[in-house]
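Researcher: Here's a chain I'd like modeled. Treat it as a single chain, no partners, no ligands.
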Amino acid sequence: MLPYLKKHGIEAGCDEAGRGCLAGPVYASAVILPKNFYHPLLNDSKKLTARQRNLLKDVIISEAISWTVAKVMPVTIDNINILNASFRAMHHAISRLSVTPDRLLIDGNRFNPYKGMDHHCIIKGDGKYMSIAAASILAKTFRDAYMKKLDKKHPQYSWRQNMGYPTQAHREAIKQNGPTSYHRKSFRLYPYDSQGKLF
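Model: Modeled as a single isolated chain. Structure tokens:
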């Protein structure tokens, strides 16, 4: 993985977790790593096990120059749509950094500029740049921990296992029990029949 896009200046990697979920907030993280940071396991969070992600989370928190995590709740997601909610979560995370970066490395191909700050959108950046990978890990681990807490209040949806993602079992649970205040009402929540039609 690459340590930075440009050698000069301070770079913050940014990524989100939970865009495709039916329930729970969308999380985002911004991370500034030291230029000489290295860890052999560091990678896109989706390519790591839960145990590896949690190990790396502790390393990142310990060694990052600055790191932040922010979330946007389902009611806001429903009001402004998930793409804008993802950008808002990233903006919140960036605003909380204790060090102001010179540029932002954004995972994906779209971003709303933040206060005129230089930014670069990088498709699959979480598998290319260390700081984006670190942000993907923090966003994912913090969101998973939050969903596990919610699972204790609403165990019938199995959020401890599916983390709010649209599994068939999750959709069936919504059909049987109805949505909670943590579900995204603007999303298609219910299961489909064999012809692909909503029940």
